[in-house]
Amino acid sequence: MVKIDPAYARRVAERNAGRSQITEEEITTAGVAELAQVNSGTVRRWANNPHNQFPARLRHGVYPLQPVLEFLKRRQLPQEISDPETTGEDALLSLYDFARLNGLAPKSVYQYADHPYLTGLRDPDNVDHKGVQRWRRADLDHFWHEVRPSPGMPRGRPDPLRGEVLKLARQATPGEPLTEVTVAKLLKVPLARARRLLAAASLADADPHLDPLLDEAARLALRVEKNNAPLTAVVVAERLQIPVARAQRLLAAIRDPAFGKTAE
After folding, report:
1. For a disulfide at 218, which of 3, 152, 233, 263, Cβ 3.0-4.6 Å?
2. How many Å apart are CA 144 and CA 193, to the nearest integer?
3. Is the distance from CB of 84 to CB of 14 less than 8 angstroms?
4. Concatenated DSSP letters of 45-103
């Protein structure tokens, strides 16, 4: 059963109120989305479905808090989804759990069950007591956002806001990592999308070929080489205002013979 502390729920409601004026006994669509760890569209579908017992709106985009909590308890989300301590990169999720966590229709995820990427990561040790295969959440995130095929974009669907998240991460105060709640608030996106953006941005930071600054680094390299000046990671870091470690990864990528200098 989903266990949500009422005081915590009220804090979530207040944090996600936006421009709505709400009382302590009310919650907005965005607040429900954060509590349930789904996107706002899913909450609206619940509200528009007369058969699922979701509480009626008090007014546009606002619902009674306590009935919402009762509804979420009845949904009986998987424990690994409802417990924030077990939703890290190494949490094991079935395809069904992954769909629920991200506000997706399960059938849209099931269709990829036999994809070579996922079958290659099948592990008998990760099968639950019901015989259902599970995968690391980080692997499922990577598959869904970077590997999953889609029309006209064979390697998946990179989110156009990923670069913005990288900028936010670089501007974050040391010792205070960027959180999905902050991303959702600053970029005005659902919590589930903010979570996916953070995962994709983390991947981009680790893989220079996915870094949105790769082309800029290549153009910088051409300009520096034309002046017969040595290009170092320190120079790249200063010009692009990024950490030296990230600059080193970018330099290694553009010096890779397979990259090809296409910048003008």
Report:
1. 263
2. 12
3. no
4. HHHH-TTS-PPPPSBTTEEEHHHHHHHHHHH---HHHH-GGG-STT-EE-HHHHHHHTT
pLDDT at 241 over 50: yes
Q: Do you know the residue count of the chain? A: 264
Which of 41-55, 57-71, 79-93, 127-141 tops mean pLDDT? Answer: 57-71
CA geometry: angle 172, 236, 264, nearest 5 deg: 120
For residue 149, the number of C-alpha atoms closer than 13 Å in the C-beta half-sphere is: 10
- pLDDT higher than 50, residue 6: yes
Report the predicted TM-score, pTM, of the whole model to 2 decimal places. Answer: 0.34
* Other beta carbons less than 10 A from residue 178's beta carbon: 21
User: Closest Cα to residue 33, out of 52, 19, 13?
Assistant: 13
Instruction: Return the pLDDT at 206.
Output: 53
Task: Measure Cα distances from 145 to 12, 17, 41, 133, 198 in Å.
Answer: 27, 29, 19, 20, 11
Q: Tell me, what's the pLDDT at 175?
A: 61
* Residue 215 dihedral angles phi and psi, to the nearest 5°: -65, -40
Percent of the chain clearing pLDDT 90 (strictly above): 10
Judge whether 93 and 140 are in contact, CB under 8 Å: yes
